[in-house]
């Protein structure tokens, strides 16, 4: 069993069992953002977390070590995503990419926002004109230094 | 003069004059995120905004109508960005893309987060372990409906 | 069973059973455009719709939750489609893309035509010189706003 | 002067002069859809049409034969368009491509909708929930025949 | 069974049985060009033709409706073909593409040669310096018209 | 002056002077297919041919040796052509590529149709249902031999 | 069984049996270059050669006709090869490509070196500073001719 | 002046002056293969060689240091070359790539043929059936070693 | 069994058995860098090494000759890697590529650092501000020589 | 003046003046690795460093603010580099990418080696069998943490 097969198994079990990611996150005791990414094969679980996930999705025993192994990351089948929801995020990078760059450099100087020392939160923002998706991202600024 | 030439002119004037995007935003009276994107050729200014921008960057007269024309958007030279700062955002889409998808669908059902009816805020988050970049995004949820 | 396998199962059952999309749409009670897209793995059915589709195509029980799950959208195997019928639509985007852009901006200002709050109708237009395909698309205009 | 330079000249003159495509179309006496495409370097004008366009945009004399020459068509700089408005049309092809294919074949048999013997109309559709873009396309059906 | 699997089945049966395309075409009663394309998954057979093809290649019953269904066309695994014989045709398009364009426009004006209302003939042309492949193509000219 | 600049010069002169490729071919004394390809930078002229071409298009003296130099061939800006007329030829390769391969191998064995020892003829084929483009290609068959 | 499966079967049998290409070539009675290419699915064997190959690698009966069928050529999984040994040959084309072109045209005029009427020999060249790989290629020059 | 401009200058001077690569090589005193590559911007000349090349092509003084600077190598505008002569070499890599790999490994073990410690010779091979291009390549074998 | 299947088998056995690469390297008696690369299908083992690897991972008998066969190298599924850890190395090549080039040429002249006669060492570098990854690479300089 | 033009100006001045990167680094007072990258448009200089660089390369006044502005990074014209020296580094990523991944994860757990908090040193390693290029890289390990 490789990680891609395991992810497909989890997704199928989730659909078949009508399990929500929020419930999985509650039982694992971490954010729904991180737990979902982990179940989708992008993060590494520890033994306790893996055991809970195996129980929730009724996974076979050999899933345990696989969930605890660092996966080959990257969740999309094409460089430019075709799914409309995911494409909108790609579009934000395409349209606002140079804006991100200018404003972060203006505030912090040369460097990047870490995508590793990073956390995010995704929630519903009620709005009379139609509810909104609110995403808060927080990544450590890492400066380039001369040497 | 086309928009790409105008953007390059603005960037050169900004560098030469030591102008900050925050100052430009203050004088235009809007967020630094939107104003920077507009100056970088991704948004459309109205006449008043264009006049202020022309004055700040000392742009020639024929820049006025160009700034008020809807640009061909997309700020990056390659589909996968090479610049490390911008790449990190692409990496977030690559790693967390399916997570965004799962969690938004779980909360809202089938649909997308709009990248048009969208606003964002980028700020410094002080942290003793090293300051962080905090980005808050808000996009209207747009549901797919059957018909 | 994942969605791609389910779609292939539906297509095979449709061919084997000589079922028409118009009939499926009639029984589901929605437009043939939306119903076909849903059966081809691009839209999400509700429980009642899924039950009808399962019955029509004699699908196994575990197809029910899969049909009600939001799919990873994008129906084509390559970025530039090779199928001549589908390519003609890509060609329209290639040739008329900037025309769409100019005319929509002239009429509405900066923004887009939604591909989500969208419906369409495809019908035969009789013509003595050879019948024509008539497609009527209607998408909500979504304006970019400054903030 | 090649066609790309001429198109850029027209676009610049249009912006500088505040000319609308609807006005150009009125003076040429054809639809705004075809006239805009022609001015953007995708269609071929005859001598009378070229003369009107040259006058409207105050083009030099050597623009006359260029406007009457069949252009190398394709209006977009990349295979997958980056501009959000144009991308939405690409997304429709990506998501609905197989639906177009199924429904046209169901109605007409094997063949295509011509993108050459084709006309379209783009108009505002008032709607209390927000006005809509309405596009009506009509292309001759061309059947594949065995031989 | 999908069309790709069916095509592979036909090719295997043809090789195993030492069947020639010319024989298949004779029995179907159409040109070898069209019949070969149909057997390779590019054209749609009617019921009679499908029955003959099934008999020749000893195909299972469920091949019948598949052969009568319009296939997703495009016979090559890569955009630029790697097979030397097929590449030479791609090379002709690459080298002579603009020549085709100039000469057809010179003779017919703006428009295209139809690849749908199209037929071709491929034959041996005896030549003392080495026999030649002679291909005669005939496609209806389809003019662009203003509207 | 490089060959690309020279080609653009010839095309501009042709448009400005209303010169036809057929006329150029007549004066050069060869087929319009070869002469057009040569003028478009795909073939090599000898001194006499180059002199005639220079005179027809009123080219500067330093065009003479450039026209007699073997060009870097390939006339299209993208691997998959965007121009509808040229795309149709690419589509023929995509749809009929494996058919070409099967039939040529059936007739000749393993080998290719030469794209070098090759000639073609493009003419109008009158037809009451609409005139047709008729293209006759003849390429020497080159067999693979074991060694 | 298709050709790719057959090639994989041959490679596995070769590894398992410790068979050398030189031995295969000896028994087939042709050069090791051609025989290896043929076994790897790039050339077509005749009945006698196929029988020998089947015996050497202990292939099933249905391999016989497959080996005698012209394969879809192209032995590499990506357009730019990732394997270091094969990449070096690609690099030679990349670095020396224009040199090949200049020198062949200088010696022969416009035309190509045939990759069909082609043979090559690969041998060890002893050298005190480290043995060398010596490759001798010979391809017929094919001139472009005007017509 | 950068190296690409210098190469274009050399090529133009060569064409205008009717200079042959063989003559340049004679005067530089090295092989025509290396000298041509160097003049085309792929190799680095020493001061004496650069002086001779400057004299032959009548290059400006600032060409001297540029010719002595290591260039950014790679002589082709696209990853898959469009020029037929150069493509044939790419085709040899595509068709024979795995053959090169198998035979070199069989003779030498794991490693590569160097494309750096490499020399080649390109000559005319007279043949009554049509002269041939003979290319002899010699590259040092470099073994992979465990460590 | 092909090499890719064998690699997947090794990786699964390693995860299931909780085996570390350092242990494998110890038992093979070589560096962990080379041994890991070999187990991941990038290097060729000799008989003794293969026997040890087979024992450690409890591989079937037919794995022995496969491990001793030179693999088709290249360990990544896409040209630009999506995995964040591996991407950082690609980014170093992208950002520092021209710097590597300038400094190596300044020190050594025209040539390359061998990726074949190459060894490397990867270790933990303790640092109070957070431990660091230290990689030492050593590759033989191979000069281009004129000939 | 944009950064690309400035980089080309620096490179030209360096070649013309026979300046070495080691000298530039000495005068700037930092490592040759960082200084070269900065001069090639990949790093940001402070005012003092910029002044020194301007003096060394005799740059115009408006180069000063450009050198102090964060550049759009990425030094290579293509995703897969064509230059042999730079390609070898890409090849190391391709061949050893999964090895880097396995060994770093084994030593440190899930996370990456920073390409930002990174320094490197490139030096000559004398060796009787031919001198070697020795590169020492040191990047901070950044762990993924659950949240």
Describe this entry's structure for a reader.
The structure is a homodecamer of 147-residue chains. Chain A has 147 residues and is α+β, with helices and mostly antiparallel strands. The first copy, chain A, folds into 2 domains: 3-67, 434 Repressor (Amino-terminal Domain); 84-143, 2-Layer Sandwich (Cyanate Lyase, Chain: A, domain 2), CATH 3.30.1160. Helix content of chain A is 49%, strand content 18%. A two-stranded antiparallel sheet of chain A has the order 1-2. In chain A, helix 2 crosses helix 3. Chain A is globular. The D-E interface holds D 30-31, 33-34, 38, 43-44, 49, 70, 72, 98, 101, 105, 109-112, 114, 116-117, 119, 142-147 and E 30-31, 33-34, 38, 43-44, 49, 70, 72, 98, 101, 105, 109-112, 114, 116-117, 119, 142-147. Chains A, B, C, D, E, F, G, H, I, J: It comes from Gordonia jinhuaensis. Chains A, B, C, D, E, F, G, H, I, J: It catalyses: cyanate + hydrogencarbonate + 3 H(+) = NH4(+) + 2 CO2. Chains A, B, C, D, E, F, G, H, I, J: Its EC number is 4.2.1.104. Chains A, B, C, D, E, F, G, H, I, J: Keywords: Lyase.
């Amino acid at each position: 069993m490789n990680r891609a097969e395991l992810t497909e198994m989890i997704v199928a079990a989730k659909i078949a069992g009508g399990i929500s990611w929020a419930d999985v996150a509650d039982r694992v005791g971490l954010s729904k953002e991180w737990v979902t990414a982990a179940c989708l094969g992008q993060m590494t679980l520890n033994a306790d977390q893996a055991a809970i996930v195996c129980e929730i999705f009724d996974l076979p025993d050999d899933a345990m070590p696989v969930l605890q192994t660092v996966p080959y990351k990257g969740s999309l089948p094409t460089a430019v995503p075709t799914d409309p929801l995911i494409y909108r995020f790609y579009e934000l990078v395409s349209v606002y990419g140079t804006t991100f760059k200018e404003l972060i450099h203006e505030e912090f100087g040369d460097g990047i926002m870490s995508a590793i020392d990073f956390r995010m939160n995704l929630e519903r923002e009620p709005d009379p004109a139609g509810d909104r998706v609110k995403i808060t991202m927080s990544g450590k600024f890492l400066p380039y230094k001369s040497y």
